[in-house]
Specification:
10 strands; 141 residues; alpha+beta; Immunoglobulin-like; five-stranded mixed sheet
């Protein structure tokens, strides 16, 4: 009886270990693959700490300034809120924000900044969710 119980416990332990190994391998593979544009780095940092290849966009009470920018692949765009109220950088199309999800940077307060490094060429459109008529475009060459 003891030999049979030890054998059953051994089989259960082996199955549990195998399940953990399979689960960890599957999770690691899912984390290393991405479709579309990889998620760029998003920061809430002061613009003084940003390095070269940076384009600054002001989020003022009247909208994004400049409204359209052209940058090289791998460049960073920094949006600084100078509107006096909360603002957002949100992917088009309002209100779903599904066109470029990595641009959904969330709300940020007046005098704060957020940034994204654009890793793939293309045309990326966005807006301020709180004032959807305020729009902007990033053209990455």
């Amino acid at each position: 009886m003891n030999t049979k119980l030890i054998g059953i416990v051994g089989v259960v332990v082996v199955l549990v270990i195998a399940a953990v190994v399979v689960f960890n391998t599957k999770s690691a593979n899912q984390n290393n693959t991405s479709g579309g544009n990889p998620s760029p780095t998003v920061f809430a940092t002061p613009t003084g700490n940003i390095q070269s290849q940076t384009t600054n966009v002001q989020v003022s009470a009247s909208g994004f300034e400049p409204q359209e920018i052209k940058i090289k692949k791998g460049a960073r765009v920094v949006w600084t809120n100078t509107s006096g109220a909360k603002a957002t950088v949100s992917s088009d199309v309002h209100p779903t924000h599904l066109l470029f999800p990595f641009l959904n940077l969330g709300a940020f307060e007046d005098k704060q900044s957020v940034s994204v490094i654009f890793e793939k060429p293309g045309t990326y459109t966005y807006h301020n969710h709180f004032k959807p008529s305020q729009t902007g475009t990033v053209v990455v060459e």
